[in-house]
Amino acid sequence: MVVQIKVVPPMRVAFCRHVGPYDEVGSTWDKLLAILGTDGRLGGGATMLGVCYDDPEITPPSKVRYDACVTIDADFVPTGDVGVQEIAGGDYAMTTHFGPYNKLGQTYTKLAGQWLPRSGRELRNAPCFEVYLNDPQSTAPEDLLTDIYAPLQPLDAK
Question: pTM for this one?
């Protein structure tokens, strides 16, 4: 596993919330992308990311929270089921997951269970997020690429 420390600027995103198992987020993405696509907001370098609030090994599946997000500019106004939030900036441990989304948990386990204890860093109280680097509609599951970002305490916070 290759892990890089990245300083991420805050990101303004449009989002739709999903509550339930992570493997059921597809309809939430469909809703968000339909609304943003109609509004012409999916081109021009928009980043698609997912904010993961809960560990499915601890949280009951019916209570797992996930936000499907697309970066947007300052003129976007929330409407209906689509809200706006800011993803916190700061230090993040980033690693790339290669393969299907249903195996993301294995990469999270390696990042938090193997890399983090050896790194000398600590997680901060913010959610992890995933950046989706290719399109699951046109990419075979084994070829999907996802960058996982885990929020870290600043080095001077110890």
Answer: 0.94
